[in-house]
Amino acid sequence: MSLYETVVGLEIHVELATESKVFCGCSTKFGGEPNTKVCPVCMGLPGSLPRLNEKAVEYALRAGLALNCEITRNAKFDRKHYFYPDLPKAYQISQLYLPLCVNGYVDITGKRVNIREIHMEEDAGKLVHDLWTDETLVDFNRCGVPLIEIVTQPDMRTADEVVETVRAIRAALAALGVSDVKMQEGSMRVDVNLSVREFGHEFGTRTEMKNINSLKSIARAVAGESKRQIELIETGKKITQETRRWDDNKDTSYAMRVKEDAHDYRYMPDPDLSPFLITEEQLTHIRRTQPELPEAKRLRYPKEYGLSAYDTDILISERTLCVLFEGAAEITRKPKDTANWIIGEVLSILKERGEPADELSLDKDKFARIITLVADGAINRAAGRRVLRALLDSDIDVDAYVKQNGLEAIGGASVVDDAVKKVVAANADSVAKFRSGSEKVFGFLMGQVMKELKGKGDPAALKKALEEALL
Amino acid sequence: MEINRELTAHIAALSGIRLAEAELDQMTRDLRSVIGYMDTLEALDIASVAPMSHVQERVNYTREDAVRPSIPRGDVLVNAARKTDEYVVTPKTFG
Ligand SMILES: [Zn+2]
After folding, report:
1. What pTM did the predictor assign?
2. Interface pTM (ipTM) of the complex?
3. What is A413-470's CATH number?
4. Which of B14, B70, B73 to mutate to test the interface with A (most CBs of A within 10 A)?
5. Residue-range domain boundaries for chain A
């Protein structure tokens, strides 16, 4: 196996988070009744004229600048012709000759992945297969939703590099707010172009894999397709250049049936759309108002908040975590504590529940309140965890919840002292063992006192009281 | 570019147009004369002229990102040869 090297390039389609479509005023909102967000422009009816959404251009430029691209100053749109039921115009408006952004890159661990171009285009409709009638139903709602397609160079060599590249691009786009980059919902779609070759040889024949809708399946698809191609080579068979569909359930890909001439797209400049010029002014404005990118946070978090590189990497991998962290840390004034609560508690609860971190929405004020209550000893950490779970379930009032559930730490000296006295009296053996040097039993005694206080003691106060009693 | 019957048939197929034999001949002749004229244009010296994709002078004809009402679904589906209350129906196709 080690004779071979895998070579991967990516084509990533990303839906831009505009309110309206790229060439008409129809809504881009996800879901809803089929064929209700459609008009003569996005259906390509004769006599209709497209008009470019300036926000879509701005978002595409933001993405291009964030991914270190050069910007094409005199951009234009072209028509890409093909017949398919999801494309009512019979052509897709795209950019072949003058893509908006070119020659960018994204840095991953130990290497630079080059981005050949980012071009703007429009999405197609959705086909639903009707199992009863064995026919296909067409919903045009997604027709004309603005997309950017990010095309990388074939610079990746391992599944890890591919996943890291997608992660980095996704984190940057999320930080910019130009897309909600949800792979499951299809607002970010990754096509993997993959070939294998013996080390030192020329590139092999590549295949393109579609329908990969999670980071996990990207890694599996890269491994699976490499294996398939290597097996073909080793048994003396040929690799066909083709589009394949990844089937995550079967852990394999299969060739998609495509018409022979499908790639003869007969591109031509779209005569309905005027060329658009990107001015220096516009670029300056965008640069000045560009949100902080994960790369910048990577430098800032350790410096400003004293976080470790490890914790920083976890936080900057998701925009939602950055927003929560920065918001809550400003209130708690305890950045390290805040980071620990996110990484140690919030993320493990999400993981246990199988909920993705990119959909996390936690009120920063309420979250900060929990951290402060624990830090001040008003509730103990276990109680804090319980409140956090409740807050992740529904929009509770933190202080009211603590009170209603009697979670306040029992820190009043007399209550704690009483409990300590009781435990010391009831456990003479253990106390004697401790006094003769067996420190292990201290934990047991602590546990007994905590039990006496029904789990609501402030551990610090309790420890102090017990230590004094045992002197 | 050599315009012959095969090429015309190929372009017709790509465009989803069915041409009868006689039409194929006529179309081939027409295309040949159109493309032939392009050869005449190709002979011009345009080294000093910037490439131009559009004849109108207007650029940056853009719009604000604002949602406007779409059209009623009945109107969307009205031209479909086959439909349900909600969808256009086509023969089995893979998404
Ligand atoms: Zn529309």
Report:
1. 0.81
2. 0.87
3. 1.10.10.410
4. B70
5. 4-281, 292-401, 413-470
